Amino acid sequence: MKKYNIPEVSISITLALSAALIFYFSTNPPQVHGDYTFRIAGALLRGELGLRLNEFPSFLSEMIPYEGKYYSAFPLGSVISMLPIALLFHEPPPVHVIIALIAGACVYFFFQFTTAFNVSYPKRILLALFPVFGTLMWANLGIGGAWFIALGLAVLGEIAALYFTLVRPSPLIAGAFFALAFGNRTELIITAPFYLYFFSRTARLNIVTLSKFVVLPIVLALLTAAYNFARFHSVFDFGYLRIPGMAPLFTHGFLSLHSIPLNAQVMLLDGFGIRSYPFFFPPLGCSMLSTSPFLFLLFRGGGKHAVICWLAIGLLTFVLWCHGEPGGYQFSYRYAMILLPWMFILIASNGPTTLTPIEISLFLVSVAINAAATRAFS
């Protein structure tokens, strides 16, 4: 890579702070009241796993009444992520600041990751901005509810873990960020073998490297199992099926092949005249591709680590499509946010080294669409 006078870290921090400010002033979170993980984190600091009956607000409709307490269906990792916030604030949490910082941190690591590719500085900046401002992430993270914050933290954990695996190998730090990722979105645990494969390519994969990477994820997994057992008497019960009113959505179970057609339709086809979804955003609908034309660059072919990235996208998509319901209140298909780091690697590495007119055009159109969506949710 060409050497520049301005330190790389200064550019990264400036870009990240600028992105955080843009995100802050362009969003107005409508679900700041949906602070499930923050409230449970506060209870955890008191030595309790759930809310007492006399402190349960009626607007938290997805809390689970069980044996005299109200519990959350969020995994332990999501609650732990909110512990620093719960230590600093009583209520309400500064949701607007939290989501802006998540957005800025994601841009920081996306930009840092581009050092792995031989591309120009203007293209590096565009590539760093597109996952946050050119896709469904802008509007969904901007909604500000606990579900959306968990997805944002999962994306941050993924791209940071990939950075400390592929660009600046550090197995312990990579493992910590991987724990952040799957701690907020449990299905991401299935991507662990891909990180180990990458370590085998970037550094000698031995017992020391393996141990450093897996130690924190294993600790979190064991704590999550104990957390589930203490609440619902089963290490595998996260409580999702216990949410009042959710049972009709899961007649075939939490994960089922019967759910694939609906999820696939919402993710890929809605907005092309196939189906009108309850949270339809005229005239584009929910289709991930219709709301982010920049993603069509995925299909240019080639790219660094293309096979692994497509395997990760395929496996995660399969699990997401098996989910009993396609996301509810959202713009586009919110669960697909966790695919963005893998898509980023493909797009960043499968094109020319400098920006092309088609890339600029697709980026501007994608940003315009998602800016309009973000405005609609504010």
Structure description:
This protein has 16 helices and 2 strands. Helix 8 (146-167) packs parallel to helix 10 (192-202). A hairpin with a 2-residue loop joins strand 1 and strand 2. The protein has 378 residues and is mostly helical. It has one domain. The radius of gyration is 20 Å and the shape is globular. It has a two-stranded antiparallel sheet with strand order 1-2. The protein has helices spanning 8-26, 36-45, 76-81, 83-88, 95-113, 121-133, 137-143, 146-167, 171-184, 192-202, 207-232, 260-269, 288-291, 306-321, 340-349, 357-377, and strands at residues 64-66, 69-71. The termini are far apart.
SSE diagram, text form:
Elements: H1 8-26, H2 36-45, E1 64-66, E2 69-71, H3 76-81, H4 83-88, H5 95-113, H6 121-133, H7 137-143, H8 146-167, H9 171-184, H10 192-202, H11 207-232, H12 260-269, H13 288-291, H14 306-321, H15 340-349, H16 357-377
Antiparallel strand pairs: 1-2
Helix pairs in contact: 1-5, 5-6, 5-8, 7-8, 7-16, 8-9, 8-10, 9-11, 14-15
Task: Please tally the β strands and state the result.
Answer: 2
- Secondary-structure element order, N to C: HHEEHHHHHHHHHHHHHH
Spans of at least 5 consecutive residues whose pLDDT stays below 50 are 1-5, 273-284
What is the rounded Rg?
20 Å
Shape: globular
Mean pLDDT: 89
Task: Report on the biggest sheet.
Answer: 2 strands, antiparallel
The portion of residues forming beta strands comes to under 5%
How many DSSP H or I helices? 16
Side by side, the strands of the main sheet go 1-2
Proportion of helical residues: 55-70%
